[in-house]
Design a protein that fits this description.
Elements (H helix, E strand, L loop, with lengths): L2 H10 L9 H14 L3 E5 L7 E6 L1 E11 L18 E2 L2 E3 L7 H17 L4 E9 L10 H7 L8 E4 L6 E3 L2 E10 L1 E10 L14 H14 L8 H14 L10 H8 L3 H9 L4 E9 L9 E10 L5 H12 L3 E9 L2 E2 L5 H14 L3 E8 L5 H6 L4 E4 L20 E3 H18 L2
Parallel strand pairs: 3-6, 3-7, 7-16, 9-15
Antiparallel strand pairs: 1-2, 2-6, 4-5, 5-17, 8-9, 9-14, 9-16, 10-12, 10-13, 11-12
Helix pairs in contact: 1-3, 3-12, 6-7, 10-12
Bound molecules: zinc ion.
Zinc ion binds next to loops.
Length: 428
């Protein structure tokens, strides 16, 4: 079974979440694995919301390959049928092709290949293809880590989560995701005194207060923090660019400008070096002739590893003063796995060896989150990859969660080779 065929079949099973229906995809993969006598189980906390667990080999060492089976809804504007799974001209087309049915297909294909070789593994390879990642993961990785952590406990895990490789000054940079920012969504509220709109000075306008608060948030200059992995990343990017600059919090923005990377990547890097606060919803006032006595806003706040809820509330208090009330509504800790570990070095070494002669691996932090947060929260070191063939078309990356999602087959083979070789080396 080839990885492109597995991916194509997975794409044809519509697992847009909601509603998900991942069990059908989990059963398809289990069927393939069981034919090769690989142990499988499907854990289904709610009807249709199954996650697949498969295991190969035995021993005290444990390696986990994680992916997710659900996809975001297709939406409109596609040039082809989103769930066709068509294989044509070296590509596989359809929703999930790069997020992340490709990784699921590569993981299963790797297990099949290892089983076929029949060389005994000195340890256990666990394949987890989960439900519900795109809606937060509570019915998938969240359920597994909360209810049967022993089934996925591993020395370390490979998951999705890194940006695709970047061609940069003659090098191809492969990223290994070692951390994810946390979320600290916060509601803010300004209170005032209402009165007739014809004599506004008799009241105290909450919308005006809120507009000052929003301006203060827009002008906020957050403290720049370089976690060691970000320091290494910026330093190496500077070196490859031929710049003699040692990154510090004081020159980070200047360095980002001099690196002259594409705009989206630059802004992603900027967001990896500081808290971000984005006022995204505002509600206030009820009628044109009434001075409003309350106005509410909702802030999307993302924090770095090392920052926490107290830090967020302190920053908001300094910016907004006591006149604006703040309440955290959704909080998720940032998560982090060190890059100073044997598994990280093994992943980096293997990637550089398999991907291209001019490949360089660098650690990165994500501005969003994946199922890796659940793994890290129960103590499993997790490393996110976004491996693509060195010659891939970068336009492919823009199709993630967008229209015309697709992948090239070469990238699929690189992922499969990487997973086969990592298991061989770690479990040898
Ligand atoms: Zn994903």
């Amino acid at each position: 079974m080839t990885p492109e065929k597995i991916l194509s079949e997975l794409i044809k099973i519509n697992t847009a979440n909601p509603p998900g229906n991942e069990t059908t995809a989990a059963r398809y993969l289990a069927g393939l694995l069981q034919q090769a006598s690989i142990d499988c189980e499907i854990i289904e906390p709610a009807a249709g919301r199954g996650s697949l667990l498969a295991r190969l080999g035995s021993g005290s060492k444990k390696l986990l390959y994680m992916s997710h089976l659900d996809v975001v809804p297709a939406g409109d504007g596609w040039d082809f049928e989103p769930f066709s799974g068509e294989i044509k001209d070296g590509m596989v087309y359809g929703r999930g092709a790069i997020d992340c049915k490709d990784l699921a297909a590569a993981g299963v294909c790797a297990a099949l290949q290892l089983a076929k070789e029949g060389i005994p593994l000195n340890g256990e390879l666990i394949i987890a293809a989960t439900a519900d990642e795109e809606q937060g993961g509570e019915l998938g990785a969240g359920y597994l880590t909360a209810n049967c952590p022993e089934k996925i406990q591993a020395d370390f895990a490979i998951n999705e989560g890194a940006p695709h490789p970047l061609s940069f000054n003659g090098k191809v940079i492969y990223f290994i995701q070692v951390g994810e920012k946390g979320t600290a969504w916060t509601n803010i509220k300004a209170r005032g005194v209402s009165c007739h709109g014809s004599t506004p000075a008799l009241g105290d306008n909450a919308v005006v207060k809120m507009s000052r608060a929003v301006t203060a948030l827009a002008d906020y200059q957050p403290e720049i923090v370089l976690v060691p992995e970000l320091f290494s990343l910026l330093k190496e990017l500077a070196r490859v660019r031929g710049l003699d600059i040692e990154p510090t919090p004081y020159n980070t923005d200047e360095l980002l400008e001099k690196l002259n990377l594409d705009h989206a990547f630059t802004e992603m890097l900027r967001a990896m070096t500081r808290i971000t606060i984005s006022p995204n919803i505002i509600r206030g006032g009820i009628k044109t002739n009434i001075v409003p006595d309350s106005c509410e806003g909702e802030l999307d706040i993302r924090i770095l590893p090392g920052q926490n809820a107290d830090y967020v509330l302190q920053e908001l208090f300094q910016l907004l003063g006591a006149g604006v009330e703040t309440a955290l509504t959704e909080y998720q800790e940032p998560t982090f796995t060190s890059s100073q570990t044997e598994p990280y070095w093994l992943i980096a070494e293997l990637t550089e060896e398999l991907a291209a002669p001019n490949a360089v691996c660098l650690p990165i932090i994500s501005t969003g989150s994946t199922d890796s947060k659940y793994l890290r929260n129960i103590g499993i070191p997790a490393y996110g990859i976004g491996h693509m063939d060195a010659g891939y078309d970068p336009d492919i990356s823009t199709t993630m969660h967008g229209c015309n999602e697709r992948t090239d087959i070469k990238s699929l083979y690189l992922k499969t080779r990487f997973l086969v070789e990592l298991a061989r080396r770690y479990l040898s």
